[in-house]
Amino acid sequence: MKVFRSLEEVPADFGPCALTIGNFDGVHYGHRRILRRLKQISEANGWKPSVLTFHPHPTTIVAPQRSPQLMTTPERRAELMREEGIEQVLILPFTHELAQLSPEEFVKRLLVDRLGARAVLVGDNFRFGHKQAGDVAVLRELGLRYGFETDIVEAVKCRGRMVSSSGIREVIRQGKVSLAARLLQRPYALEGDVVRGRGVGSKQTVPTLNLATSGEVIPAEGVYITSTRDLESVREWNSVTNIGYRPTFGESPELSIETFLLDPLTGETPRRIRLEFLHRIRDERRFDSPEALKAQIFQDVRAARNYFRRAKAWMGRVPCTSS
User: Fold this and answer.
1) Were both Cys, which of 42, 45, 139, 189 would link to 49 (CB 3.0–4.6 Å)?
2) How far apart (Å, rounded) are the C-alpha atoms in residues 191 and 215?
3) Are 28 and 66 in contact (CB under 8 A)?
C-alpha cells in the first residue's frame, strides 16, 4: 500500500482509480462494506482501489465544539484498509481553504483533475463541499457531468443496531467491548508505551504492564479480558486489564491501564504494546486490603482462562450479519 499525506506527494499516475471518501474512524463493519465493494469495482475495471481521508477530522476546522474523540489514528486506519485490499490512501490535511471549496470545485479540482477518479463510492449519508452543501444526489449529478460512476452504499445494521463511528465510541465508553468488537469486526484496541507504575502491584498484588496511550476513546473503568501484543516483535499474551484509579491503594488522580499477563513474561519487557479488549468481567471497586484485591485478581484470571479455553476465535472476528 502507498500512503500519501499531501496533494504534493500524489503522483501523476494515482489514477485511474476507484475512490471512496470519508473519515473512516474505526474502519468498522459499514466502512468495510464500502471498501470491499470498492475492491470489486476496481478489479472489474483495472482501476486502483483508493481512499481519500482527512486529518485532522473536518469538524476540528469547521465546528470545533463538535469535534469527536477518535478511535483510530490515520496510520492505523491505513493499516486496516490494507487488510481489505486498498492500494492507495491519501491522508489529506483538512484546512480552512479546503473547507471553502464548493461541491463542484471539490469534485473537479480534487477527485477528477488531481486523483483521476473513474468511480466514487460513498455511504448514503455522505456530505461534502462548503457548509456540507453537497449530498449523494449532488455527487451523482457531478459524476454524470465529469465522467465518473457514482455508487452509494447503504448504511448497515448489526443485530438491529445501526453501525456508525459515533455509536461505537459510545458503546466503548460504556464498557461494552464485546458489542464493539462485533460492530468493528475486530476487538477494539489501545496502544502505546509501557511505562513504570508506582510499584504497588508487584509488591502487594501481582506485577502488571502499565500502558501510556494517546488513544482518545477509553473503555469504562473496570476489569477486562484482553489480548496483549508486543508491537516490536511477534510476542502475544492472553491477559487481564484493569482500567481505573486504584481505589484500594487510595484514589489515584490519574487513570491507569494495568495489564496482568496470564503466562509468565520471558525475555525483555515490551516497550510498546497493543491491548485488544475482548470481554468485560466487572466494575473496578475498592477492597478492604491488598490481600482481598489479590484474591479477586486471581478470580478474574480464572474467568479469563475459562474464556480463552471456550473461545475458538475472538468475539470481534465473528462475522456480523446485517439486518
Assistant:
1) 42
2) 7
3) no
pLDDT at position 316: 45
Length of the chain equals 323
Instruction: Compute, in degrees rounded to 10, the torsion defined by CA atoms 219, 202, 314, 82.
Output: 70
Amino acid at 15: G
The position carrying cell 473503555 is: 219
Q: Are 139 and 108 in contact (CB under 8 A)?
A: no
Tell me whether strands 48-55 and 17-21 are parallel, antiparallel or unpaired.
parallel
- Please report which residue ranges of 233-315 form alpha helices under DSSP H: 290-310
What is the tens place of the pLDDT at every residue in 236-280?
999 999 999 876 666 667 899 999 999 988 889 999 999 999 999
- Our separate counts of H helices and E strands in the chain read 10, 14
CA distance 312 to 297: 24
Cell digits of residue 144:
454524470
